[in-house]
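Memo to structure team: turn this sequence into structure tokens by end of day. - J.P.
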Amino acid sequence: MKCSGWFVTLLTALLCGCQYSKAAPVYAALIEQTTPAMIREIQDAIVALKGGTAPRLAHNVFMQQSTLLLERGNSLDPSGQPILGSKEGAVTGFELQKRAEQCVLYYPRTKKYQVLSAVPCVINPQQPQR
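Reply from structure team:
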């Protein structure tokens, strides 16, 4: 009989633990209005997720679409002219997401994300839950 008490306790603990480990729903998100500080935070998140240097972003980044595609540009010679054949054409994508109450920048290539604490976002009504 003592074993069944332990079994019930263990089963209850496992079931309770499973409830708390459920992932929050993930939604595509938009920014209603950007500020220079928000753009800097997004740039910093891109560098943290992907590495490299911070890309230049438009003042309306993530205001119309939840995805951001960055294309690597041409390498330039010392006079500022594109080097023939230097365009790699590599495109890197990021997604702005709403996870619970947090706004995050998601990098699908590594399946990692960075919380954007200073960026308020809203669920994108044009895109379904992920």
